[in-house]
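We modelled the chain as a single entity of 353 amino acids. Its sequence is:
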Amino acid sequence: MAPSTSAGRRRNPGCEPAAGTRPATPSGWRTADLPLTVWPCAQRTSQWQRHGRYLPESNRHPAKMLPEIARRAIDFYSDPGDLVLDPMCGIATTVVEAIHLGRKAIGVELEPRWASLAAKNVTHARSQGAAGRALVLQDDARGLGRGVLDDLAGQVPLILTSPPYGNATLGDPRGGKGMARARACEGRRMTAADRARAAKAPNCCRYGDSAGSVARLRYGTTDEALSRGNESYLAAMASIYAACTRMLSPGGHLVLVTKNLRAEGALRNIAGDTITLCQHAGLVFQQHIIALLAVLRDDGLLPRPSYFQLTYVRHALARGERTHLVCHEDVLVFRKPPSSHTNPSAPTATDKR
């Protein structure tokens, strides 16, 4: 699947450092120079964004990217006919939205269960008229450009993905009492089919348990990751971002959907740590986008939390932890310099395998 060139790709105005300013970051950017954008991505619920467009089993994945976020990123940072790559594709949200928008797409997924479902979602999208071509591979993203999709190294205009947020075990939001609460939030009544599904839903769902699963690792620190220290989530992500840099074409974009969260009583600065790792890989931090998970209505925001988000916040408050409901995700946009080479000191696929 050969990528197409996109010399006319749209660029966001204001994405160059202000003239006469002194850069204050290693990448040549000052925080004040970075354009900030807000995307209203939850005007429809996540369930309705996926309804009919994805197979029902897709709801079992514990951390799905909102289709509206994927659509906006693909539409802005690529042109029709471009190749879009998702190195951690999950249920194939990026791939499905890309082929609906007339792009070519490749998804790489480590977990056999989700890779199989991703391929089925692509087939489902094709049956609905998606015109783009797609490929789903079950493989490790750390091997990109060094054993995985080597022929496309340096030729991908856009990489879009939502990495796992660390080790997570989540319940099925439509299991047990969760189904009744979900239907009440949606203003609908429980049906016999709803009750049957709620009774059968397993108690929990994980990213996966395959050897090498990033989500199973302890979080770690950026210093540890960049010094190729002990195995950790951040060390594995450093290897994946280095692999993404190898795959990007000069001037290509890496768009990451992240979210800061609390774990073990502490806030994990996932967005900030991701910026550090990507800059170390040789990428330029170009833009920070706030993807709202709340509805814009009149002069305010109406949150649309899941049952488990509400439950987590309530339990945290009961423990005396001061925390709030998170109503946005951080979309981080990086660009590979036109004449860039991968940072030779960045961790590679073989360092972590």
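As a brief sanity check on the tokenised model: Residues 112-127 form the longest helix (16 residues). The chain has two domains: 49-168+207-352, 169-206.
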